[in-house]
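Lab notebook, bench 4. We co-purified these components, and the gel suggests they stay together. Before we commit to crystallization screens, I want a quick structural picture of the whole thing.
Request: model the full complex, all chains together.
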Amino acid sequence: MTTVLWLALTYAQIALALAACLAAIRMMKGPRAQDRVLALDALYVTTMLLFIVSGMRLGTPFLFEAALVIAIGGFVGTVSLSKFLMRGEVIE
Amino acid sequence: MTALDDLPAWLMLIVAFFLVLGSSLTLLGTFGLLHLKSFYDRIHAPTLGTSWGAAAILLASLLAWSWIQDRVFLHEIVIGICIMVTTPVTLMFLGRSALQRDRAAGQLQAPKPSRDPDSIDIP
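Here is the predicted assembly.
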């Protein structure tokens, strides 16, 4: 039964890494700026999930703080980038 | 695979199921982000990863860590609330700014102003 969990962890890590690669491809390819910001947001979420799965696999609870910081940083980054796209400046 | 060996078999099956579900949904979401044609279709795709993708992986981690540490483990709930509260705000901001940019540039793929209930005034 340990093998099932090991396989699931490996599958989850590979799938999340592939998802991050697809988001990075969209970020490089995106025709306009908002596509790149959207891909950056998806990349943040995917990397946070990858941190959590890696923390389960390594057996350390210390990656949760990193995941929380990534989640908050992704929110602040995406909101300020879309504010910049809307107005041309972040703080008015 | 050190601490996770102590889990009982039924919990291992549940954790493995939630891990596979969440990572598959996240992968599907970013595939849609790469595959869909217009931006207004694309903005819906990654929410698959932020709703059930994140929820399933966080649920799997919550169950595993709560069993290992023999107490209720609450870090994932904080992360989950943070994700679920911030994602709609972020995407609403991004959608509005994209709509404003597309209308200002006269792009054809932008939705018509009559279909938008609260339109943005563009000088």
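The longest helix of chain A spans residues 2-29. Worth comparing against the SEC data before the next meeting. Chain A has one domain: 2-87.
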